[in-house]
UniProtKB/TrEMBL annotation:
Protein name per UniProt: G-protein coupled receptors family 1 profile domain-containing protein
Keyword list, A-Z: Membrane, Transmembrane, Transmembrane helix
Biological classification of the source: Eukaryota, Metazoa, Chordata, Craniata, Vertebrata
Pfam families per record: 7tm_1
Residues annotated as signal peptide: none
Residues annotated as transmembrane: 30-51, 63-89, 141-158, 198-219, 240-261, 273-293
Species the sequence originates in: Coilia grayii
Domain G-protein coupled receptors family 1 profile per the UniProt entry, residue ranges: 43-291
Family annotation (SUPFAM superfamilies): Family A G protein-coupled receptor-like
Length: 320
């Protein structure tokens, strides 16, 4: 009898230690995610303010598109972090989760579409320099941004409306926030989601490849501006790399679903957390470095504001 009580106490003690260890790991992961998220939202905010600080940035299509990219990525980082907070405290209702999913899904879709439009702008600037000011206007840039949000909202809004109509527990049932748990109730939803996203990514890939090839051909031309063409060539290559990183976001749900079946509960959450940092968070955090700091005109003004405007002389913008 005494042996049984001792073994029971040891088992309870081991369970308590494991529980406390799991809670500690969960808190440390949450802290890392919070710090990384807010550091990069802070950097994005300074870069965004930098773009608003000069009329030349506000009126140039490529800087307007870059500002939209920063804003879009910051919203996605903020709302994915919000999902983590809500899930950490308690499971939200489907209605609350669907509102968050609408924002995160649309911003995830906007990212590759924005890259496609940025590639077209560089293609026009290099291949049709005399018509660039006429074709790539600020007004058309804002129309393109509005179109991105329209296409980005099609999938999540369709899923949310369908679920709210045909799911009687939509406003009351508590779930873990995610596409698979929220919206993939009907076969046509999965097919529609995959087909539309596939169409977006294939279209953007073709646009970037076409623009890249055309710019490379122009760069080899003797009569072209070699410096501008070379910069555009490198920028389009970065667009393609960024697109591959965005593609990982599309595959994130499939990877997570596969791991949920194959791995144990503890290992699954550890691996899911790591993949989230590498696939969701990291690509969004690279945007200021890839596109902002390599731009000489933008970098000087950014560093001025990043240092809290301690310098007495405000830098001027040298566009070239």
């Amino acid at each position: 009898m005494a042996l049984t009580l001792n073994s029971t106490k040891e088992e309870l003690l081991q369970q308590l230690i494991l529980h406390r260890s799991a809670v500690a790991r969960s808190r440390s992961k949450f802290s890392v995610m919070m710090i990384v998220s807010f550091v990069f939202i802070y950097i994005n905010s300074i870069m965004f303010f930098t773009l608003l600080s000069k009329p030349v940035f506000r009126d140039t299509p490529r800087y307007v598109l870059f500002a939209h990219m920063l804003c879009n990525d910051s919203i996605m980082i903020l709302f994915t972090f919000l999902i983590g907070i809500i899930s950490y405290i308690h499971r939200p209702t489907k209605a609350m989760c669907s509102l968050i999913m609408i924002v995160t899904t649309s911003t995830a879709t906007n990212a590759p579409l924005n890259l496609g439009v940025m590639s077209l702008e560089r293609y026009i600037a290099i291949c049709f320099p005399l018509h660039h000011r006429e074709l790539a206007t600020t007004k058309r840039t804002y129309v393109a941004i509005a179109a991105m949000w329209f296409f980005g909202l099609v999938n999540p809004v369709t899923d949310s409306v369908y679920s709210s109509i045909f799911d009687p527990d939509f406003f009351f049932e508590q779930v873990e926030c995610g596409h698979e748990t929220m919206f993939r109730t009907a076969p046509w939803q999965t097919l529609f989601y995959q087909a539309l996203n596939g169409l977006y990514y294939v279209t953007v890939t073709l646009v970037i490849l076409y623009s890249y090839i055309k710019v490379v051909l122009v760069a080899r031309s003797v009569s072209s501006d070699q410096k501008s063409a070379g910069k555009a060539h490198r920028t389009l290559l970065l667009h393609f790399i960024q697109l591959l990183l965005c593609l990982n976001t599309l595959l994130y749900g499939h990877i997570i679903g596969f791991m949920a079946v194959m791995l144990s509960y503890e290992v699954y959450y550890d691996v899911r957390y790591t993949i989230y940092l590498l696939v969701i968070l990291l690509p969004r955090c690279l945007s200021p470095v890839i596109y902002g700091l390599r731009d000489e005109a933008l970098r000087c003004v950014f560093m001025y504001y990043f240092k809290c405007a301690l310098s007495k002389v405000k830098p001027s913008v040298n566009m070239h």
